[in-house]
């Protein structure tokens, strides 16, 4: 997806015709890197960035006018705009179960209208913590779906090694004595042991564990 988006952006910026972005849904448990993935996508593809929550579009004073402002910004963008919608569940319900006269229905409909055709001006990236069977019209407008699951044993080992390097072994933020002691204590055997005991931990929880080790030390 990242390589594909980089390619699309280069073609769009160079005024190639009939090139449009693909909208994306990221789903998986909290702390598995959905926001990090979206930000990495934005940085590598050189798109502009805006981050909102799905529920913010339903707050008083937002709604249809907020959606109009968002896409007006996108249409003025010279590089293209990545619109990241975190906790997007409120935009994904089955509309057959919502009162057509309600504000929520009208807001979702208005949002869907902007996504009715692929665009060379914006890319929508939504994230949710749940696997959702969502509205058929929205499903047609989401072109790719990526699951970000909890890390397995191999991934937890790599995460522990990564965060140990960044938090415990970095000589720019720790003195020499601390780094030497950290290398001695948090060795390969210790990392393997911790990884084996942290089944069910998210990426964020692994990072927090290393931060806790540092604080206790």
Architecture overview:
The protein is of the alpha/beta class and 217 residues long. It has nine helices and five strands, in the order αβαβαβαβαβαααα. It has helices at 2-13, 34-45, 63-76, 103-114, 136-141, 153-168, 176-185, 188-197, 203-216; strands spanning 24-27, 48-53, 81-86, 122-128, 144-147. A five-stranded parallel β-sheet has the order 2-3-4-1-5, sandwiched between helices. The longest helix has 16 residues, at 153-168. The two termini are 41 Å apart.
Radius of gyration: 21 Å
Uncertain residue segments: none
| Number of strand segments | 5
Fraction of residues in helices? 40-55%
Give me the side-by-side strand order of the main sheet.
2-3-4-1-5
What characterizes the major β-sheet?
5 strands, parallel
How would you sum up the global shape?
Answer: elongated
Terminal CA distance reads 41 Å
- Distinct helical segment count: 9
The whole-number mean of residue pLDDT values reads 92
Element order: H for helix, E for strand: HEHEHEHEHEHHHH
Structural class: alpha/beta
Beta-strand portion reads 5-15%
């Amino acid at each position: 997806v990242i390589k594909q988006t980089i390619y699309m952006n280069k073609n769009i910026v160079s005024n190639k015709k009939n090139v449009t972005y693909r909208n994306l849904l990221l789903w998986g448990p909290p702390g598995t890197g959905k926001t990090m993935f979206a930000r990495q996508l934005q940085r590598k593809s050189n798109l502009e960035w805006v981050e909102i929550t799905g529920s913010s579009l339903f707050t008083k004073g937002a709604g249809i006018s907020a959606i109009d402002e968002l896409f007006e910004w996108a249409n003025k963008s010279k590089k293209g705009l990545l619109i990241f919608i975190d906790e997007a569940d409120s935009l994904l319900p089955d509309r057959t179960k919502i009162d057509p006269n309600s504000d929520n229905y009208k807001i979702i409909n208005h949002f869907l209208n902007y996504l009715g055709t692929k665009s060379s001006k914006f890319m929508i990236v939504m994230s949710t913590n749940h696997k959702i069977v969502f509205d058929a019209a929205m499903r047609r407008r989401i072109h790719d779906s990526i699951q970000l699951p909890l890390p397995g044993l191999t991934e937890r080992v790599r995460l522990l090694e990564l965060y140990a390097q960044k938090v415990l072994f970095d000589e720019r933020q720790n003195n020499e004595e601390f780094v030497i002691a950290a290398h001695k204590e948090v060795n390969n055997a210790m990392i393997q042991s911790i990884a084996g005991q942290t089944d069910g931990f998210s990426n964020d929880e692994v990072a927090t564990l290393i931060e806790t080790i540092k604080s206790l030390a």
